[in-house]
Structure formats: C-alpha cells, structure tokens
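I am writing to request your help with a piece of structural work I have in hand. The matter concerns a single protein, recorded as an amino acid sequence and a row of backbone structure tokens. Could you please explain, in whatever detail you think fit, how the structure tokens follow from the sequence? Thank you for your consideration; the sequence and its tokens are set out here:
>
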Amino acid sequence: MSGELVSSNAVPLPTQEQNRRRLRYLASFVRPHRREFLRSVAAAIASTLLAMAIPILFKQAIAEGGIGTEDATGAVDLGAVRFWVGLAIVATIFDWLFTGLNQRWSVWSVRVVNDLRTALYAHIQKQGLDFFSRQRTGTVISRLTNDVEALAQLVNEGVFMLFVNVLQLLVIEVIMFTVLDWRIALAVNVIFPVMIAATIAFRYYSARAYRRTRERMAHVTAFLAESLGGMRVVQAFAAEERVDEEFERANTHYRKANMETIWLSAAYFPGVEFLAAIGTGIVLWYGGFLAEADPSQTAAMVGVVFAFLLYLDNFFDPIQQLSQFYGSFLSAMAALDKIMGVMETEPTIVDGPEARQLTDVRGDVHFDHVSFRYDEHGPEVLHGVDVHVRAGETIALVGHTGAGKSTFVKLLSRFYDPTRGSVRLDDVDLRELDQRWLRRSMGIVPQEGFLFSGTVRDNIAYGQPDATDEQIAAAAQAVGAEHFIAELEHGYDTQVGERGSRLSAGQRQLVAFARALLVDPPILVLDEATSSVDVETELRLSDGLRVLVAGRTSFIVAHRLTTIRGADRILVIDDGRLAEQGSHDELLAAGGFYAALYGTWTGESAGQDDTIEARLDAGPST
C-alpha cells in the first residue's frame, strides 16, 4: 500500500512565469465576483488610511498641547489635547466601521473557493478510467480537500493581508520621511538590508520545504484512503502491525517536511522581532539626541518620537505578517500547482464538436476490426476483433481471466476508444456520439453491486431520480428483489450503509439489477455481475437476470453456466482474439476452446450440475 515518496531533490522551484500563470488562473475565478472584491478593496483602503492617521493626530495632541514640556504658565493646553484626541477617536470609529464592511464584503473569497472546488470536482468526473487507474484515490481526495483548503487560506486571508500590509508600509514610509522627521526615518531604515537578506534566504529555503509538505500530505491522505477502504483485508490477514508501521513511515516523512518549515519559521520570525526591537532603540536614542541638540524643539520632538514608536509597531507587524503570508503563499502555490496539474489533465475520452444523439436506438452493435492497448507503449489487449451483434441479441463473453472480456465491454461503453478499428452503434461510430447520452442508453451492472449511502429507494432510482414509487417497486418486483426488501426494517426506506454494507452480496446485486432495469436501457452490459456470489444466490438472481435481458441487446461477461447457456450467442475471447462464436450447443459440437472450458467448469461443479440444469430447463419461477 505504501507509495514511493517524492525525493526532496525532485521538487523544483516554480519559475516566475509559472507563478504568473497560476495567479492568472486563480484570477479567473475571482473575476465573476469582482464587484464584491472591489467593494472590499475600497473598504480596506479607507480602513488602512484612517488607522495610519491616528499616530499623527496623537503627535499633534502632544506637540500642540505642550505635553512633556512646560509653557510660560507651566500648564498643558487641554483644549488642543481634547481636539486632536477627539479627532483620533472619530478616526478610530470610522476605522472600525470600514473594517467591518471589509469583512462583510469579503464573502467573495468563500465563493471563489467554492467555485474552484466545484470546477475541480467536475473536471475529475470528466476523466476517463485511465486517469483513476494512474492516480491513487487518496491523492485525488487530497487535491479536493487539503490542497483546496491551503488555497482557501490564501484567498480568504492572504490576498487582503498582502494588499493592506503593502499599502500600510508605503503610507508609513511616506509619513516618516515627509511628516515626521526624515533623519530618524533614515536611521530606522538602515536595518532594512538585513531584513531583506533574511527574507530572501527564508524564501529560498522555505519554498522547497512547503512543496515537500504538500507532496507528503497527499501521500498520508492516499495511504489512509487505501488502508481504511481495505480494512477488512488488513484484519483478515492480521496485518495491523505492518500497516501501522507503514502509516508511521508515511506520517514521519510528512512530519519531517513539516518540521523543516517550522524550524525555518522559528529562525526567521523571532529575527524580525529582534530587528523591531533594534528599530525602537534607534528611535529613542536618535530622537533623544536630536532633542538634546535643539532644546527649543523638545515638545515637537516628544510628539515625533511618540508617533515613530506607534508607527514602528505598525511597521514591523506588516513585515512579519508579510513573511507569514509568504509561507501561506508558498503552501497555496504548491497546492495550486497540484490542482492545476489535475485541471490541465485533458480527458482521454472527449466528445467531438458535432457529437450527436440517436433518436431511436435499435441496439445493433458492430466491432469492426477493433484493436486496443491501454498504454501507448504497452501490449495490445485486443487484436482485430470483428463481430456483428444484432439488435435484441444476448451475447455471452467467455474466456480465461485477462483474455480481454472486460476490455471488450469497456470499449462498448466508450470508457476507452479503440487503438485501431471502430465500435459502431446502429452504424454510427461511438466517437461521433455524445458519451453521456451513450451511457444513459446503457444499463451497466459491474461485478460488485456498488450501492451509495442512502435508502434502497434512492439506489434503485439512481439512474432515474424522478421515478415514482410505483415504477421503483415494479423494477424491484421484476428482478425478484421485492421479497427481501419487504423483509427489511423500513422496506424501501431502509438505509443500506456505505457501499451497501448492510445488505448481502446477492441483495446488492438485485438492487443493481433493479437500478439498471428502471432506466429501461436498449443496451445492457453485465460485467461478471454474478461472479461474486455463491451458486445458490446466483440461482436466485437468474430469474431477475432473464427479465433484465429480455427485449434488449445484452452483453454478459460470465464464467458460470447459468448465465452462459441461455445466451443467443457465445463469444469466446482468447488472448485478446475472437477465438470462437456460436450457440452453446454449436460450440460444444465443434469441440474447440469453448468445449475445453465447458469441460473444466462442469468438472469443477459436478455436484451442482443437476440443480443448475433443472433450473435452466424450468425457466423463470413464478
């Protein structure tokens, strides 16, 4: 179960062009919500400018009120103090108001994340089966959860943190150099080269660390999805300790990658605090020096130093927040890179620009010299299969495991396209048809009767959600499922559990039969639909199977006599080639490949042949 973890050396830094492309992609989701975005930006600008005005107002209160000095009467000008402090209070109130409006209008960010997650899930659903065979389920889940969540932090908080903090830094720099004292401002700015150098180093090392963290988090999620899904097998083989060790290894790799980001942050962010303390010392020392050099400017200098101290708090906080934002930005960009990797994966099965639907499906199917390989450089799985299936004919496909039977029906359902040749429905190449319409025209029952969490009714009506209760009951009765449904605690409203865990294998298959019958498809595909149940259960399913195939073109991949002997024609697939075809009796008389398979089956089930033959001869039960 454990996957190969990506080496740290294999995690390249993105280029500037890649970052710009990612941001343009993200901006495409913001564009539909630009009105709310612009409102929020305007509120953020107003709030920032008001907050930056407050230290100047306090400076004026100190300077004009004579605080810290004595005038001729030795009194403080309380009128001036009240005026400037009053203005500061008004500015604080409006700052609070615009901050609240900014928060209210920032709902756009939630909508952006929701649109992105929805678009990602919709794109994943468009992928062919080859995509899901290459990707671990947990990795795909990680893209939809962990990676989207990392991006949500950037969109919900990071965008405005970046905008507001950059604006705040620019305004503070302008005020310090033009309104307060350029000499003290210049002295404070001498620490900037050190901070810039530290930030560049932090960016260089943390970029790789955050990308490794995203990679290894995906591995942990993938391992969890796989091991929890296979928990029955884990416990059946008493492999809990080994799985624990594998999970611990995967988790340790993630922890080490995460610890690397923590150590980098532990070195960088306290360093920013240290530089802020140095800046405060510079302001107090140099401000005191200037006041001592010109005693007549002491009152003004007290106000200037006080304002500088307030601005320094507002100056280094944005720098620290920008540094934190950069960590979130790196994590989000790594996540966006993974998301875009999925979004840029083109589905292998796509509709042409003139894809159409047939108005009346007869069910005539023709495999015209079809060859197929799953991978461009892989072995060929089907070799020049040429067969014509007439409308309404029931076809059984038999052969050894791996012969190509399931591949045959996957091409029929257009989960894949032939490498050479064509598959035609009513003389129309499947590649010319709308694939969603094509699959709606088919009833597909796989080997495992997969049921979704919900009620029996919900699962039968899955392919036709607007079906009435009468239609649902009629479908269940037709395939013989009404007997066990009536015995359930709540009948059709009984919860089946995850993957139908509260029902037996036979019951799940009967529900799957009813689900396929309800949509009344002109073409039916049963891919070893009874191979996972015992013979007795299969005998109970046989009546439902006869109802299901009646009057429609049916393809049945099977190993057992109950589903093979009743077919109009049997196609024998051997090593990807159509070895034989004909009825059961014709193929037995020919004494070829099918006869040998039949002999093997009957030899393995000699004790059950009488029961099987009797049920086959008797026809459907009443």
Remarks:
- The first strand starts at residue 365 and ends at 372.
- The CA atoms of residues 10 and 53 lie 49 Å apart.
- The chain has three domains: 27-343, 383-441+523-531+546-622, 445-520.
- The mean pLDDT is 77.
